[in-house]
Amino acid sequence: MSVLEQAAAARIAAIDLAGATRAEKDAALLLMADRLVERAGDIVAANAVDISTARENGTSEAIIDRLALSPERVAAMADGLRQLAALPDPIGDVVRGSTLANGLELRQVRVPFGVVGMIYEGRPNVTADAAGICLKSGNAALLRGSRSAFSSNAAIVSVLRKAVADAGLPADTIQLLDATTRDSVKELMRARGLVDVLIPRGGADLIRTVVEQSTVPVIETGVGNCHVYVDAAADLEKALAITMNSKTQRNSVCNAAESLLVHTEIADAFLPLVLESLLDAGVTVHGDARVAGFNDAVVAATEADWGTEYLSADISVAVVDSLDDAMDHIRLYGTGHTEAIVSESLGATRRFVAGVDAAAVVVNASTRFTDGGEFGFGAEIGISTQKLHARGPMGLPELTSTKYVVTGNGHTRG
Amino acid sequence: MSVLEQAAAARIAAIDLAGATRAEKDAALLLMADRLVERAGDIVAANAVDISTARENGTSEAIIDRLALSPERVAAMADGLRQLAALPDPIGDVVRGSTLANGLELRQVRVPFGVVGMIYEGRPNVTADAAGICLKSGNAALLRGSRSAFSSNAAIVSVLRKAVADAGLPADTIQLLDATTRDSVKELMRARGLVDVLIPRGGADLIRTVVEQSTVPVIETGVGNCHVYVDAAADLEKALAITMNSKTQRNSVCNAAESLLVHTEIADAFLPLVLESLLDAGVTVHGDARVAGFNDAVVAATEADWGTEYLSADISVAVVDSLDDAMDHIRLYGTGHTEAIVSESLGATRRFVAGVDAAAVVVNASTRFTDGGEFGFGAEIGISTQKLHARGPMGLPELTSTKYVVTGNGHTRG
Question: Residue limits of the Aldehyde dehydrogenase domain (chains A, B) (predicted)?
């Protein structure tokens, strides 16, 4: 089947799914979970094909580890689906409601988008996650995973589709697109009218391509050049803990800090401490001239460093002369993901919160908290860095649209 | 200045505007209103240039009437700005908030988009409306009106910019783009990163072009092929009043009905009545074979009729065999704007409301109620027919994004 045929089938399936009750959707999610565990052997066997191909292609062991599935990892995917079943259903929520002066009853109600397209890279567990989140939010899912995980993804989707059908919902609410050709991505991006929203998850190149070429509305995710700004009025101990946690707790993720800005008045006290800690932790420090003066191990930062999302054990560090300079720097180089200030000054934090435009502005805490799980959403389909529709971590409500229901008794407009 | 230079200036102005209080913005709106009235003579004189050009170009008097400004029409624009000043400010609203298990305080707060681009046709009053709505919601506005109204729009924007500056806000929050060339539309559509959202208002061709070519996120507005479905269990009197009001109260607008679907069981009772009323009101009825049997004045409907937004005194009429057939017809030909059912059956209305996917689903009332003013929003920038971000009439909150503010006391992630 072509992508357009798959999308058309998804569109029809989505009509039934939109009418499914929470009980019906939760029963499907629980059956999907049970079947993944039952069929873990087949899934791991299909994964072995992907692993073997990756080895033949000379893929690094780090990436192979991300790709690899074990019975335990399959069980974790199943647990994710069970957690989704336990979450409230966003569909049918009344977002606002009132009775108008003429007696018309107005309600704005959450409804599914219809058909959601996902383009993603890497780990096959995203396949089960995305399928589950879409199903719970009443959306049919068109999943375009990476070529390197195609055999694994095909096995997972086959199990999930059978479970959905056995639970009495249309199997075509979950479909895997051909990952062996780039054409499937192109067709998906042009399927306006059949696909309601497209969510790319992956590297900056993938996201840029989708944003520029898609006629289907896109929710942009992920690129995070996140800053920690240590204000003149910072508590040094908190500043050190927050910087280290933001940079080193996990450095390959979009909410890790990539840049540290230090107010000049606190530089003498703070920089020696933080540079030593960063360097001890194996982080390469790319610093400006003032930073370099504090430690010989600092590498000279280039202009490119300030705009780089390293996703590695690297950090750029600059001294700034004021809070305004810090905000100007963030406006110039930030990607609108997560920006943190460390300060005990209420005035400084108020100005930073008001003046910095990002999905998340964090006061005296690690950038790593920008996450659907940490925010208590229970499920996350990605972190939006755009301003339209959803901004920041996206949970189930972010995968819905709304409709107005207007109820009268023969009302006409005068 | 090029569009990109104007957009860059808007971006800088938007930073100041985002920090403006409600009091500052309302003072600017009131001054804008006063100045429009004071300078009405200049505006009407500028308008005379557009009118004269339109006459030279052989423009119809109906369109010239839409274009024409009088002191009274300028006063109405000023009143619109005063009404905006009286509306609550959406900026700073806390959309959701909680304290997480670890003590982090999470708040999701409404913030402006930043820079909003508007592409619109026809009447110059839209210029003042759009400028006011954007200012109240904290957004800088890049306004690309029609070439036919360029002289009028230039005069209006000149007055508004001076008023904004005199009120202490940056004049560049309101800018008119060159309407004498199509290049300004093209540049605006490619100004991703400088312009946060683009709202096209106008004909289907304009909207399609923007949706297909823009890399700036778009909010699609307007096309409405709206249906009235008269169910087997309809009250005939309500059905007649609602059909007539939906079609004839004003037929050039997107929420006017373009198509009538009548359940076969009520066709004998209802069609003679409604056809006579429609024909008496000067409406051309494009009917299917069954409809044509009821009245010789019915014109045979072609396949194209079912998908046409007439925006004129025309209506397509079909007999359907069931509620499901009505919903299938609406799915096939509807544009997701407004769909109405007339029925006294709770079961039928429940099924219709659940099964029809549109910005507004209306029960026993006219399609003409889908409107920001009728919904009590106080201001409207357009009616979205897309599912992302905003659906249905868009008021001030729909012109905002959100950001998460996360406040801790040295919190790090474990």
Answer: 7-277
* Strands, E assignment, A191-271: 197-201, 226-230, 257-263
Q: How far apart are CA B53 and CA A405, in angstroms?
A: 45
Using the Cβ of A223 and the Cβ atoms of chain B, whether some distance falls under 8 Å is answered with no
User: What phi and psi, each to the nearest 5 degrees, are found at residue B367?
Assistant: -65, -20
Give the strands of the sheet with B105-112, arranged side by side: A299-300, A284-287, A314-320, A257-263, A226-230, A338-342, A360-365, B400-411, B105-112, B94-99
* pLDDT score recorded for residue B362: 98
Q: Do domains A3-220+386-406 and A226-369 have the same CATH topology?
A: no
List chain A domain ranges. 3-220+386-406, 226-369
Q: Is some CB atom of chain B closer than 8 A to the CB atom of A22?
A: no
Q: Which amino acid is at B281?
A: A
Question: CA nearest A352 in B: which residue?
Answer: B405
Would you identify the CATH topology of the domain B3-220+386-407? Answer: Aldehyde Dehydrogenase; Chain A, domain 1 (3.40.605)
Provide the strand spans (E) within B179-268: 197-201, 226-230, 257-263
| Assigned fold of B226-369 | Aldehyde Dehydrogenase; Chain A, domain 2 (3.40.309)
Tokens found for residue A125: 């567990």
- List Cα–Cα distances, A32 to A23, A38, A82, A171, A272, in angstroms: 14, 10, 9, 12, 53
Q: Which two tokens stand for residue A95?
A: 């977002």
CB distance B391 to A403 below 8 Å: yes
Q: Is A384 within 8 Å of A377 (Cβ atoms)?
A: no
- Ordered DSSP codes for B34-79: HHHHHTHHHHHHHHHHHHHHHHHTT--HHHHHHH---HHHHHHHHH
The CATH number given to A3-220+386-406 is 3.40.605.10
Q: Which residues lie closer than 8 Å to B106 by C-beta, 6 or more apart?
A: A375, A376, B96, B97, B98, B99, B100, B404, B405, B406
Classify A273 as helix, strand or coil.
helix
Contact B412 A215 (CB under 8 A): no
Average pLDDT, chain B: 95
Instruction: Give B313-340 pLDDT, tens digit per residue.
Output: 999 999 999 999 999 999 999 999 999 9
Chain A CB within 8 Å of residue B108 CB: yes
> Looking at beta carbons, which residues of chain A come within 8 Å of B346?
none
The phi and psi torsions of B75 (rounded to 5 degrees) equal: -65, -35
User: Residue length, chain B?
Assistant: 414
Report d(CA A73, CA A354) in Å as an integer: 42
Mean pLDDT over each residue of chain A, to the nearest integer: 95
Helix, strand, coil percentages in chain A from 3-state DSSP, rounded to 5: 45, 20, 30
Chain B positions touching A393 (Cβ under 8 A) are 404
Interface pTM (ipTM) of the complex? 0.94
User: E strand or H helix at A89, and its extent?
Assistant: none
Q: Is the pTM of this model over 0.90?
A: yes
Size of interface A-B (CB pairs under 8 A): 210
d(CA B405, CA B34): 38
Which residues neighbour A87 within 8 Å (Cβ) at sequence distance 6 or greater? A136, A378, A379, A396
Tokens of A258: 């990539």
Closest CA to B17 of B238, B170, B161: B170
Q: For a pLDDT cut of 70, what percent of chain A falls above it?
A: 100
Give me A128's structure tokens: 């089960």
Decide: A218 and A118 in contact? Cβ < 8 Å. Answer: no
Count CA within 13 A, CB hemisphere, residue B205: 1
B25 at A interface, C-beta within 8 A = no
